[in-house]
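Retro notes, item 3 of 5
We never archived the inputs for the adenosine-5'-triphosphate complex last cycle. Fixing that now. Sequence and ligand:
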Amino acid sequence: MSDTDTSAERAVVRDSVTVRVPAKVNVQLAVGAARPDGFHDLANVFLAVGLYDEVTVTPADELRVTCAGPDAHQVPLDATNLAARAAIALAARHGIEPRVHIHIDKDIPVAGGMAGGSADGAGALLACDALWSLGSSEAELLAICAELGSDVPFSLLGGAALGVGRGERLTPLDVGGTFHWVFAVADGGLSTPAVYGEFDRLTATADVPPPAADPALLTALRTGDATALAATLVNDLQPAALSLRPSLAATLTTGMSAGALAALVSGSGPTTAFLTKDAESAETIAEALVASGNCRTARATSAPAPGARVVS
Ligand code: ATP
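Structure as it came back at the time:
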């Protein structure tokens, strides 16, 4: 190979790249009053959990998105898909065409408050970076993630992190153990903007304090103490999600009656999250939730999960 070869010619040419990327739960979601630009300042403690989408990218004549999985019919396959937007943004930054087939194997509930679309955006970004041998730094990828959406940077990093601003300015957090969770998947989604709109309506006459991370919750994460974490879980969007979907209250009650340490709506919902004392208890609670008929399905898993990773 001569000195004049381009880096693209020197690079290993790959037929396809698959990236695995996790869902998240917000163990604290503190929401400030609406700003003049309509966004809300947040103190958002993200925890990546072991439910994953897999994003596979393959060279193609033009950009194309396909999706498989139980919720696949709810996923847009056009350029609004966050995975497509990620490929377009990365290609534009490098002056190349996003000629790629993106296939999403979707296991994260759609419009469930678990950042499934954000996961696919982060996954497609990492996968295209590898397919096109661009060698972007994590900082470069995180900058594109932040342009794509508030939850996308965390999907790339995984683990646990505190997000401030719109949630996209992240500080990684230490987690001192494994936490066991059950997620009850509801029928149908809830629109995140609609839930924020309901939050604004419900808090219109209230004095909404500036959002701040709870030191007790950060200590519970750092020490791996599930009981202490259960006592501090909080989601300021929960009243708004319950107002739009009152049936979620019965799901929360069912999980608590079955032995959960704590229950809360995941992000903007309608997925509900149950912290449990161990893996066995998580399985028992998942079975009780399914048997109750209060949810479409229930999944037991653990956290923290790693962020987006190339798996093949
Ligand atoms: P968040 O927790 O970040 O608020 P969510 O988990 O509630 O998000 P998503 O699953 O990300 O919701 O889907 C929200 C909407 O985003 C969907 O209704 C869909 O129209 C759109 N969307 C765009 N790209 C994707 C994608 N790759 N997967 C799922 N939904 C997508």
